[in-house]
């Protein structure tokens, strides 16, 4: 596993490969090259002042006769918590908010396409440490109020992952993402469908599996969905958001190098290809230390941290292209300009939904989940 201070795959390739080889390697790793956005100098100065990385790329689509470009921008925010993990919950959101306010100034500059500013997504539980049990964060929480203000002020949709305590149903805890419209109103929420039972991430001891299905949110800028964290490992999870019409699926995550880093560049990109949509993979950065030791249930020594959260947030397109990732080590903002017409254009070429044979799989899966199911194995 790469050490935490190892900056990024992209930096390593650019440092060690000659230009011709680098171009071919990037073609194989990232597909069609994405155009770099010409970011305003004021935004770059803001990033330097705030000590966060700022990158921008554009995905382009062919010109159509009957539809104009459907161009939107998305902003992916990756960050570490600025205070120690044991700091009071009430104090945790404020420094993160300040950092994102600095980055939002860069997003609000007059560099937006004519369709308006972007949906914006932060990584999983962006205000807080990766936690077990914490008090509820709802729309009355200061960080959520700030998200509403930000959405309305900058005419953008905000995806804000939170810990939800469901007071109407016995204080059940959910891993939830709130979608805030560019009007400043809550458009809706979605809950994490798949709960891991993997080492330190045995979330079944504190979260319930989501019960809201696979909602897709119609915004002014396009249809978006949120596949929370561990849900990215389940192809059918991505698939159902696509079936419900998502143009863009965000995947806010908090995942560490030893567990998943080799899978990270592949899964969201595969989902974009298989489902004819854009996907946005967002991870946190840094290492979070806890005051008390805990074990992973694997026979190894107790420890005080999960491991290194490796950032590397990126955007993938339905034509198999993707942006370079953000740093493994720094806070960052990745801006991507998407022409949503590319979704249908790729669908017209590959026809995965036309050739999907969903009726066949629906029948076979309905049989496979029955208690008396016997696998179809042919023997001599």
Automatic annotation (TrEMBL):
<feature type="domain" description="CN hydrolase">
    <location>
        <begin position="72"/>
        <end position="340"/>
    </location>
</feature>
<dbReference type="InterPro" id="IPR036526">
    <property type="entry name" value="C-N_Hydrolase_sf"/>
</dbReference>
<keyword id="KW-0378">Hydrolase</keyword>
<dbReference type="InterPro" id="IPR003010">
    <property type="entry name" value="C-N_Hydrolase"/>
</dbReference>
<protein>
    <submittedName>
        <fullName>Beta-ureidopropionase 1</fullName>
    </submittedName>
</protein>
<feature type="region of interest" description="Disordered">
    <location>
        <begin position="87"/>
        <end position="122"/>
    </location>
</feature>
<dbReference type="GO" id="GO:0003837">
    <property type="term" value="F:beta-ureidopropionase activity"/>
</dbReference>
<dbReference type="Pfam" id="PF00795">
    <property type="entry name" value="CN_hydrolase"/>
</dbReference>
<dbReference type="InterPro" id="IPR050345">
    <property type="entry name" value="Aliph_Amidase/BUP"/>
</dbReference>
<dbReference type="GO" id="GO:0033396">
    <property type="term" value="P:beta-alanine biosynthetic process via 3-ureidopropionate"/>
</dbReference>
């Amino acid at each position: 596993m790469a050490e935490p201070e190892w900056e990024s795959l992209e930096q390593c390739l650019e440092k060690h490969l000659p230009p011709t080889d680098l171009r071919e390697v990037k073609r194989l790793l990232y597909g069609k090259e994405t155009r770099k956005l010409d970011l305003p100098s004021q935004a770059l100065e803001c990033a330097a002042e705030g000590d966060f990385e700022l990158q921008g790329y554009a995905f382009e689509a062919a010109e159509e006769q009957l539809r104009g470009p459907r161009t939107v921008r998305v902003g992916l925010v990756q960050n570490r918590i600025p205070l120690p993990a044991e700091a009071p919950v009430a104090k945790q959101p404020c420094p993160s908010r300040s950092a994102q306010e600095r980055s939002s100034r860069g997003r609000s500059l007059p560099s937006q396409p004519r369709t308006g500013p972007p949906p914006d997504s932060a990584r999983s539980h962006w205000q807080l440490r990766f936690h077990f049990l914490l008090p509820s964060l709802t729309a009355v929480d200061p960080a959520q109020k700030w998200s509403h203000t930000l959405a309305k002020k900058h005419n953008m949709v905000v995806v804000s992952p939170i810990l939800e305590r469901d007071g109407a149903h016995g204080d059940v805890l959910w891993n939830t993402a709130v979608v805030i419209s560019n009007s400043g109103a809550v458009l809706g929420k979605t809950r994490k469908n798949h709960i891991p039972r993997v080492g330190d991430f045995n979330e079944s001891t504190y979260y319930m599996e989501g019960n809201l299905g696979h909602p897709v949110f119609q915004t002014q800028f396009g249809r978006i969905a949120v596949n929370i964290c561990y849900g990215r490992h389940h192809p059918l999870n991505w698939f159902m958001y696509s079936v419900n019409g998502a143009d863009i699926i965000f995947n806010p995550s908090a995942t560490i190098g030893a567990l998943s880093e080799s899978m990270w560049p592949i899964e969201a990109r595969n989902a974009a290809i298989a489902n004819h949509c854009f996907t946005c993979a967002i991870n946190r950065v840094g290492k979070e230390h806890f005051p008390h030791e805990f074990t992973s249930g694997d026979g190894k020594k107790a420890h005080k941290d999960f491991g290194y959260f490796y950032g590397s947030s990126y955007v993938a397109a339905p034509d198999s292209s993707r942006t370079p990732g953000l740093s493994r080590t720094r806070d960052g903002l990745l801006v991507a300009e998407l022409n949503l017409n590319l979704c249908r254009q790729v669908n017209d070429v590959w026809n995965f939904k036309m050739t999907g044979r969903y009726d066949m799989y629906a029948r076979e899966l309905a049989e496979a989940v029955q208690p008396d199911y016997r696998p179809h194995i042919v023997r001599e």
